Amino acid sequence: MHKYLKVSFLILVLAFFSSAIAGGNTEGESHGGDEKVNGEVIIHHMLDASYLDFYPIPVGDHGKVHLPAFPAIIVNGVNGFIDFTSVAKSVNPTVFAQEVEQKNGIVIDMSITKHVFFLFVAALVCLLIFTLPFKKAQQGEIVVRKGFSNLLETIVVFIRDEIVYPNMGEVQGRKFLPLLLTIFFFILICNLLGLVPFGATATGNVNVTAGLALITFFATQIFGNKDYWKHVFATPGVPVWLLPIMIPVEVMGLFTKPFALTMRLFANMTAGHVIILALIGLIINFKSYGVALGAVPGAAAIFGLELFVALLQSYIFTLLSAMFIGAAVEEHHHEEAH
Amino acid sequence: MDYSMAYIASGFGAGIVTLGAGYGIGNIAGKAMEAMGRQPEAAGDIRTSMIIAAALIEGVALFCAVTCFLLNK
User: Fold this and answer.
1) Interchain CB distance below 8 Å, B59 and A267
2) I need a labelling partner for B33 at 20 to 30 A (CA). Which of A47, A120, A124, A257 fits?
């Protein structure tokens, strides 16, 4: 019992410092005493950037460590010629913008940004935490798992028995279990990396969540069986004269599902950070240490809530993905009521 | 062109969306608690259905929130 108390105290202290550092970052961006933390500053903090921000620590260029930036590829829409810009976007934005306008085409910028960097980190963490215990188990060293790998096993078994099998059935569930587990752990680690000091939430970028939702979308369409398409284009039990209304609604439903997945994860991961920054920003806006007495505990409480939301949103994403794919692949029995 | 009314509309819109979604999800949660109280052995199933229903309502609310967001541009 004593051990757990110590751990929870440590987490609380970490939460305190993390929210204070989040505030420190904002202060660093506002340059000078008269500026205030407004919506613009907060949104700027949430956006993607070409550098990692370590503001109070003097590394790189005033706490900014620049990531590798590449010139963008421009594909001409008319004749398909491929061209390059002469500079990367983050190196010289004005020249970059001129060249993009001049060369006129589809811009493909493969520069590594803050969010891309944290996606790589999340992927690496995902790989490490699963391959290392797996290798140990393969060598026959472990019979009963202990510590961290035991925690992982509990989560994996929970997802299998509470999310995947009840929604997809054992046969189909076994097939899609690796995909859904990967989605769960990848989203969870991305969410949690945003709560680490100097980290960034890759899932707080709408492009990332849209990509994740597209995986679910394509899995649903590709593995969907005959019955699934029948439900879209000729819903059983619906009178024929209603079909002209039903088909557009059903087809729209195909696209609203991934859209809702995208927006849910994006909005939830963004909202918490905005609240923390707004609370810490109060201290700077009122120019008084007294406000910190209220703002920092408030921010720490929101930080705790964010930990919960990070878990909940990855759970919901996995659950809904399992439901959507499950509904598309399951064998229907048409004698039963719908 | 004057966009001030769009800002007001987005603010009001977000507020009304919150009211609707809060009422809906609150209703679901309340009913689910009642159901769990009556039948504690079915708590797991009820919780899953509750989260799914809440997520669907949240989806609609987020659509509206995005609309408000776009008005703010």
Assistant:
1) no
2) A257
Is A210 at the interface with chain B, CB within 8 A?
no
| Model-wide pTM > 0.90 | no
pLDDT digits (tens, 9 = 90+) for A81-106: 888 888 888 888 888 888 888 877 88
Q: What size, in residues, is chain B?
A: 73
Greatest Cα pair distance in chain B: 61
Q: Cα–Cα distance between A215 and A267 in angstroms, integer?
A: 19
Range of the domain at B37: 4-70
Distance CA B48, CA B58 (A): 15
- CATH for B9: 1.20.20.10
Q: Give the residue among A155, A157, A204 at the shortest CA–CA distance from A306.
A: A204
Number of domains in chain B: 1
Tell me the torsion sign for CA atoms A51, A54, A60, A62. positive
What is the maximum span of chain A, computed from C-alpha positions, in angstroms? 72
Binding-face residues of A in 133-192 toward B, CB within 8 A? 162, 166
Interface test with B, best of A159, A209, A252, A263 (most B CBs within 10 A): A263
Say how far residue A230 (Cα) sits from the centre of its chain. Answer: 33
Paired strand residues for A65: A52
Long-range contacts of A93-97 (CB under 8 A, 24+ apart): A96/A72
Q: What is the pLDDT of residues A198-256, one digit of tens each?
A: 888 999 999 999 999 999 999 999 999 888 888 888 888 888 888 888 899 889 989 98
Read off the tokens for B26. Answer: 């609150």
Q: Which two tokens stand for residue A200?
A: 């960034």
Least CA distance to B56: which residue of chain A? A260
